[in-house]
Automatic annotation (TrEMBL):
Organism of derivation: Elysia chlorotica
Transmembrane segments: 12-36, 93-115, 136-157, 177-197, 218-239, 259-278
Record Gene3D superfamilies: Rhodopsin 7-helix transmembrane proteins (1.20.1070.10)
Protein name as annotated: G-protein coupled receptors family 1 profile domain-containing protein
Record keywords: Membrane, Transmembrane, Transmembrane helix
Length: 308
């Protein structure tokens, strides 16, 4: 029995360890490279990216190590049910927090891109003071709501020992607001943007300058399409099984849950790849070295705005 468990758990431990190490180093590298540049960190887009990387670090520094500890505990007797329940409860709570934060930050990121792509000058409409307050709210309120709602929800349902299991309907509601709704919103915003940009290009077909601007800025959409695409690839199994449980009332089993959690967690690493489609981020990551002094080009930095 123990040999069979080791064979089942060893790949999971290996992939989780890779995510823990590589994901932490990669996110810290991107995060530090942006924050160390006064020019980059003033952009609202880059601030949201930093917020997203901090959410990824929740996965790589908390969720993945807890899952590794849970797997190691299972294959090493004596098996303490109370310890297992503690690890399982922590993994469920923090895992849901990471998933919700990641999905909703991507919604804000895509929404900001759509607003700037359509030339909606949000900063001019709200003013500098209100704009700063909106920035602080966008960065902090999702964390407060998600952490509070998740902790309160799980604290209401206590099962055997210290295990905390949320009933299927309540978990379906959590997954709906945490994953399904933001994932669909991101796709709908990008589709709406494509339709509106197409109409703008049809109206302005005689203006060659406008066409050139649209062609130049359309390259940036690749990054956001890739971000949303990776989100769906990593979350489609979670969304499908959540809907299946609600319809068929049948669980997926422990091994399938482990695989779904692993695939979902790998967004913390794969989600950084689309950022390389952003020219300023790519240039900074390629040239920045923390052990070398960096001299940024002289320029006039404007106050942080809601623009990209």
């Amino acid at each position: 029995m123990r040999v069979w468990l080791i064979k089942k758990m060893r790949p999971l431990i290996g992939f989780e360890s890779l995510l823990c190490v590589a994901g932490t180093l990669a996110n810290l590298w991107f995060l530090w490279s942006i924050l160390s540049s006064s020019r980059l960190r003033r952009s609202m887009r880059n601030q949201l990216l930093c917020n997203l990387m901090i959410a990824h670090l929740v996965q790589t520094l908390i969720v993945s190590p807890v899952e590794i500890a849970e797997y190691i505990h299972i294959i090493n007797p004596p098996w303490d049910f109370d310890v297992y329940c503690r690890l399982e409860a922590m993994e469920n709570i923090v895992g849901h927090i990471h998933s919700a934060l990641t999905d909703w930050i991507i919604v804000f990121l895509v929404g900001l891109y759509c607003a700037n792509r359509l030339n909606l000058n949000l900063a001019a409409k709200v003013g500098p003071r209100l704009g700063t307050m909106c920035q602080v709210a966008i960065h902090t309120i999702p964390w407060i709501i998600v952490v509070t709602a998740t902790s309160v929800t799980f604290s209401k349902f206590v099962g055997l020992g210290r295990c905390q299991y949320v009933p299927s309907y309540q978990k379906f509601l959590l997954e709906t607001f945490y994953t399904i709704i933001p994932s669909i919103l991101s796709v709908l915003m990008l589709l709406a943007l494509c339709v509106m940009v197409r109409r703008q290009s049809d109206i302005a077909h005689t203006d060659m300058r406008r066409q050139a601007d649209l062609a130049l800025s359309s390259d940036r959409m690749v990054a956001y399409v890739a971000i949303v695409g990776i989100t769906w690839v990593c979350e489609i199994a979670n969304i499908t099984t959540t809907l299946q449980k609600q319809i068929d009332k049948v669980g997926t089993g422990y091994w399938m849950e482990c695989m779904i959690n692993l695939i979902s967690g790998y967004r913390a690493l794969l989600g950084l790849l689309p950022l390389l489609f952003l020219p300023d981020i790519l240039d900074r990551v390629k040239t920045w070295r923390p052990w070398q002094p960096q001299i940024e080009p002289a320029r006039i930095d404007l106050p942080a705005t809601l623009n990209v």
